[in-house]
Amino acid sequence: MNRSPAPSRARPGAAPSRSLIVIAGVSSLGGLLFGYDTGIISGALPAIAGAFDLAETGQQLVTSAIVVGAILGAYASGRLSDRLGRRPAIIVAGAVFAIGAVLAAVAPEAWTLGIARLVLGFAVGLAAQAVPLYVAELAPPARRGGLVVMFQLAITVGILFAYLAGYALDGSWRWMFGLGALPAVMLLAGMLALPESPRWLFTHHETAAARAVLLRVRADTAVVDEELGQLAETPATGDQRRLRTLRARWLRPALVAGLGLAIASQITGINAIIYYAPTILGDAGFGRSAAMLTTVGVGVVNLVMVILGIRLVDAIGRRRLLLVLIPGAVLSLAVVAVVLMTEPAPQGAGRWLVILGVLGYVACNGGSLSVVVWLAGPEMYPLGVRSVAVAVSGFTVWFFDLLVSLTTLSLTSALGTTGTFWLFAVVNAAAFLFVFRFVPETRGRSLEEIESALRSGTFTAMR
């Protein structure tokens, strides 16, 4: 019998206020910068390789430098978010984004460009933890999924802008990097006018300030009082800044689900396509112009699916969205692999099947795992350890992203393009089985209700 808490009923204050939409929109500029600064390397890499005479290893190091920085940023994010607050952590990220963009644009040598990418990565890792956490702690349960997924939408918009910049500025890689300074300044300025997370304020004994923020983003005073009451009833979990707090047995189901989704979001191959699409398609016989245009198509499809995901993640739920779309990713990758097996350099109908297979994969993976991964941690982890647990999830994402970015070209060389697509198809199938077994449904439940289910042992029974 399922004894997990029932989802919160719709309340007068459940719909997001204009103020809350502005908060989610401005803070999600951190996601746009995330997407732009990770995606721009796809169009810039060929020109950088020519300018600095970089071999395959050098190209992978320049590409992966941002991921190393993101690992460092994720590691620091929990402490910064807890000590300074969620909002100041995002402000710091905005400043670092601006500095990194300028450094990359003026880099005189490959190693200085690598350092600039490392700096940008630190900002990416920090924003990837702080922004979803900030929005999740401000949003009402009925709209939390869509508002947090605005961060992923912004990532996708940033990736699309990066692809368009790469196509329009073909060869002008310094301008490609420099353009990232503009949204960084916008994020920095915009966050100065926004409030702090009410849950951070409450845990730092600023109850009056927490109430004032909730009144700003909720339409109903009764809803505010109920949320504060739930917060007051939430048990403390020791020193939330220490990793050892995550060893508690009752936390394990959330950690398994959250960290498993973090790993799956990377090893299923989406960033391999984002980082190396022109190179992989070139190996499959596509010309440079056709490969770059297909890459722009990848960005457009990813954007459309995330927009759809914003609606579906609250309408049908996180778990169901994953279980419906991941099989489509498996099928799409298998189609590409079969075509390349029969025709290594496809032409005519075969080429179109490869393009449609790649776009179908991006649609199904980008519309499921990529949508849910940044939402899962802030929802599943209890308040007392939320910041450090989300930081660990972010660290996991970036560690496996680094693994993918460092090995994709080598993997393609070793297995061939066909073998690489088959491998990613198998990994996506394994991700489906993991979701089916370990990932619960959190749609419509307050953060405090999810924590209550975790403490009572009914977390994985939520469907």
Automatic annotation (TrEMBL):
GO terms for molecular function: transmembrane transporter activity. One of its GO terms (cellular component) is plasma membrane. It is a multi-pass membrane protein. Residues 23-443 form the Major facilitator superfamily (MFS) profile domain. It comes from the Bacteria. Keywords: Cell membrane, Membrane, Sugar transport, Transmembrane, Transmembrane helix, Transport. InterPro entries: MFS_dom, MFS_sugar_transport-like, MFS_trans_sf, Myo-inositol_Transporter, Sugar/inositol_transpt, Sugar_transporter_CS. This is Sugar porter (SP) family MFS transporter. It is found in: Cell membrane. The keyword Transmembrane helix applies. Belongs to the major facilitator superfamily. Sugar transporter (TC 2.A.1.1) family.
